[in-house]
Amino acid sequence: MSVLKQLRTGRCCQRLSNLLQTAPQQSQYSSLSPASVLAALQARLADSGAVPSSAAHVPATHWQQSPALEALSRRGYVQPAYAETSSDEEDEAPKKVAKPQRPRRSGLIAVKAGMTHAWDEHGARIPLTVLWVDSCQVIQAKTDARHGYTALQLGIGSKRAKRMPAKERGHFAQAGQPLKRKLAEFRVTEDALLPAGTELRADHFVAGQYVDIQGTTLGKGFQGVMKRWGFAGQPASHGNTKAHRKAGGTGACQDPGKIWKGKKMAGQMGNKLRTVLSVWIYKVDPARNLLWVRGQVPGHKGNFVKIEDAVMKTVQQQPSRPFPTVVEHGSQIVTAPAPQNAFQVPH
Amino acid sequence: MFGRVCSKLALLRTSTALANLESAVGQATLATPFTRRWDGSAAPAASSQEGEALSSTFKKHAPSVHNTPSAPWTPTDQLRKRKHLTKRMGHLMQVLESEQMDVNTRVQTFPRFSAGDFLEIKTAVPENQRREAVFKGLCIARKWRGWRSTFTVRNFITGGGGIERTFQLYTPHILQIKVLRSMQTRRAKLYYFRNRQPREYRI
């Protein structure tokens, strides 16, 4: 399993566990318990008159059960023999216990608005990308019992009913949510599930934290090896015949007698889904739902991007973030604190 | 089109910026990057008035037509008429950058200058404990792009040769710009001085 997947699922070796420093579940996040946050969000939805959907089946005590064991029992896995036999006391804990998963909260979908820049306190210039969260709402909560995995389906933007196929309209009607332009799923742990209709705003992320941003890169079309893979090419003159930008050799001789799979060749470049890791959030505007992040973000202006907490940052490297989301939204624009000296660049 | 609109706004700022804005936005203060002045003293921290002041910028620059468009950060489901996202995001960037310019012009004021003016620019060099350095020369180009505006200054140093330097207009490193004298020009960009004798543009 790749390192990224290990970190995301929590099924990692001892060394990575130490890196994550899996503490008790709510230590790195706000002091509010998921139960109280969920209750507050559900109360707010009830007050606003939102129709509770039948699809968002979120049991109240789901975080008290072990999700891994539940999944295994649902699939018909029989517990090992030593756990069943010779146990006189019924409250003896089973010897095989699933490792506690690192709590994982939802992300956001946003629209790439464009790039600008700012100068920090020391006068260092920071290139910035502006991301706009265009009313991102929870459409559906995917649970282990019903769907086989735990995730939140978020929707962003708006689309006219006329321009939407009937199947898509039916999906939103069943969820009881307004029609959205773009849907995306975010794998979460069960204690981070949110009721359908919850709006996630820009202050879901904290200024100064690191995030991963995923988007479809700019399409460059069919490109040659020099642009696509950075090949050096061949000389422009000195007798070179019609081979200035070619790849040159593609393999060995009779052995292996073939071209290996994955050989770098000309082809489609760009227009692929790519993730930029550990992007630093410079400024958050909760009132207007804007995020300023450092550096570049894949895709065009007007592109939809997925934003999630950085997977390659430890808990100690991130500031305190709201879990599972913010309950009371602020209105102050928050800028990340500048580094200690002028030559320390936060990456 | 955007360039010309921004140039007119920039002219307004450079001539009467501080007085107009101080009256309009009151005791507004900055969050970045001028919380620390160039001489090391700290400016007061940002107040809650920043939010209201920034939203007033949009109202100030909104066109005076009957069906005034709503703010570019309005959620799409609240819009009656929806233009393409790329257009709306371009408008959003324009509004955000003009807000940033308004914030900066509260502390930065520059004289009105153009290509053909001999300038003396005082900068604070960050690599040298923010000591003051002076750069003199002829302004050969002025690029009007709002928040991204720049100007290029050319000079000739004996024993060194010709030197050109391009400054970002709103950088916090520029402390003062002074116009020494002007020459008559019939162009906006004076790149022909690169092929002329240094005595014509040296100062």
UniProtKB/TrEMBL annotation, chain A:
<dbReference type="GO" id="GO:0006412">
    <property type="term" value="P:translation"/>
</dbReference>
<keyword id="KW-0809">Transit peptide</keyword>
<dbReference type="InterPro" id="IPR000597">
    <property type="entry name" value="Ribosomal_uL3"/>
</dbReference>
<dbReference type="InterPro" id="IPR019927">
    <property type="entry name" value="Ribosomal_uL3_bac/org-type"/>
</dbReference>
<feature type="compositionally biased region" description="Basic residues">
    <location>
        <begin position="96"/>
        <end position="105"/>
    </location>
</feature>
<keyword id="KW-0496">Mitochondrion</keyword>
<keyword id="KW-0689">Ribosomal protein</keyword>
<comment type="similarity">
    <text>Belongs to the universal ribosomal protein uL3 family.</text>
</comment>
<dbReference type="GO" id="GO:0005762">
    <property type="term" value="C:mitochondrial large ribosomal subunit"/>
</dbReference>
<dbReference type="InterPro" id="IPR019926">
    <property type="entry name" value="Ribosomal_uL3_CS"/>
</dbReference>
<feature type="region of interest" description="Disordered">
    <location>
        <begin position="235"/>
        <end position="256"/>
    </location>
</feature>
<keyword id="KW-0687">Ribonucleoprotein</keyword>
<dbReference type="InterPro" id="IPR009000">
    <property type="entry name" value="Transl_B-barrel_sf"/>
</dbReference>
<protein>
    <recommendedName>
        <fullName>Large ribosomal subunit protein uL3m</fullName>
    </recommendedName>
</protein>
<dbReference type="GO" id="GO:0003735">
    <property type="term" value="F:structural constituent of ribosome"/>
</dbReference>
<dbReference type="Pfam" id="PF00297">
    <property type="entry name" value="Ribosomal_L3"/>
</dbReference>
<feature type="region of interest" description="Disordered">
    <location>
        <begin position="81"/>
        <end position="106"/>
    </location>
</feature>
TrEMBL record, chain B:
<keyword id="KW-0732">Signal</keyword>
<protein>
    <recommendedName>
        <fullName>Ribosomal protein L19</fullName>
    </recommendedName>
</protein>
<feature type="compositionally biased region" description="Polar residues">
    <location>
        <begin position="46"/>
        <end position="57"/>
    </location>
</feature>
<keyword id="KW-0687">Ribonucleoprotein</keyword>
<feature type="signal peptide">
    <location>
        <begin position="1"/>
        <end position="17"/>
    </location>
</feature>
<keyword id="KW-0689">Ribosomal protein</keyword>
<dbReference type="InterPro" id="IPR008991">
    <property type="entry name" value="Translation_prot_SH3-like_sf"/>
</dbReference>
<comment type="similarity">
    <text>Belongs to the bacterial ribosomal protein bL19 family.</text>
</comment>
<dbReference type="InterPro" id="IPR038657">
    <property type="entry name" value="Ribosomal_bL19_sf"/>
</dbReference>
<dbReference type="GO" id="GO:1990904">
    <property type="term" value="C:ribonucleoprotein complex"/>
</dbReference>
<feature type="region of interest" description="Disordered">
    <location>
        <begin position="40"/>
        <end position="76"/>
    </location>
</feature>
<dbReference type="GO" id="GO:0005840">
    <property type="term" value="C:ribosome"/>
</dbReference>
<dbReference type="GO" id="GO:0006412">
    <property type="term" value="P:translation"/>
</dbReference>
<dbReference type="InterPro" id="IPR001857">
    <property type="entry name" value="Ribosomal_bL19"/>
</dbReference>
<dbReference type="GO" id="GO:0003735">
    <property type="term" value="F:structural constituent of ribosome"/>
</dbReference>
<feature type="compositionally biased region" description="Polar residues">
    <location>
        <begin position="65"/>
        <end position="76"/>
    </location>
</feature>
<dbReference type="Pfam" id="PF01245">
    <property type="entry name" value="Ribosomal_L19"/>
</dbReference>
